[in-house]
UniProtKB/TrEMBL annotation:
<feature type="transmembrane region" description="Helical">
    <location>
        <begin position="19"/>
        <end position="36"/>
    </location>
</feature>
<feature type="transmembrane region" description="Helical">
    <location>
        <begin position="90"/>
        <end position="110"/>
    </location>
</feature>
<keyword id="KW-1003">Cell membrane</keyword>
<dbReference type="InterPro" id="IPR005807">
    <property type="entry name" value="SecE_bac"/>
</dbReference>
<dbReference type="Pfam" id="PF00584">
    <property type="entry name" value="SecE"/>
</dbReference>
<dbReference type="InterPro" id="IPR001901">
    <property type="entry name" value="Translocase_SecE/Sec61-g"/>
</dbReference>
<keyword id="KW-0813">Transport</keyword>
<keyword id="KW-1133">Transmembrane helix</keyword>
<dbReference type="InterPro" id="IPR038379">
    <property type="entry name" value="SecE_sf"/>
</dbReference>
<protein>
    <submittedName>
        <fullName>Preprotein translocase subunit SecE</fullName>
    </submittedName>
</protein>
<keyword id="KW-0811">Translocation</keyword>
<keyword id="KW-0472">Membrane</keyword>
<feature type="transmembrane region" description="Helical">
    <location>
        <begin position="42"/>
        <end position="61"/>
    </location>
</feature>
<keyword id="KW-0653">Protein transport</keyword>
<keyword id="KW-0812">Transmembrane</keyword>
Length: 128
């Protein structure tokens, strides 16, 4: 019997400080955008974008950011392993899906109309 693998997460004080600084930078960038309301819009937007860019850069130097980058690389690697269907095969499968949807729509419409006829015409005696 194998033991389940355990994921060890190391969160150092420096890493926590980086993430706190990221949060402060994001909030500070938004606050600066609104505090600079007397300035031209281009200056406000640049201040916001620079603050957010610095926050993103700092985030990617933290352990969480490095894990996110590794996850993205691994995802790209997995997508490259996917065997995509040939165009003819994809068109066939699309046709099957459309045919199934049409058949289900007809079935549900017939079921609805049958129940409507049974309930309103036969049981309740209402005529529309």
């Amino acid at each position: 019997m194998s033991t389940p693998s355990q994921v060890e997460t190391l969160s150092t004080g420096a890493d926590k400080a980086k993430l706190a600084a990221v949060a402060v930078l994001v909030v500070g960038s938004v606050v600066a955008f609104y505090l600079l309301n007397q300035q031209p819009m281009w200056l406000r937007v640049i201040a916001l974008l620079v603050g957010l860019a610095v926050a993103v850069g700092l985030f990617f130097t933290s352990e969480s950011g490095k894990q996110l980058i590794a996850y993205g690389r691994e995802s790209v690697r997995e997508v490259k392993k996917v065997v995509w269907p040939a165009p003819k095969e994809a068109a066939q499968m699309t046709g099957y899906v459309f045919a199934f949807v049409i058949l289900m729509a007809l079935f549900l419409w017939l079921t609805d109309k049958s129940l409507e006829w049974v309930l309103y015409d036969l049981i309740l005696g209402w005529k529309h």
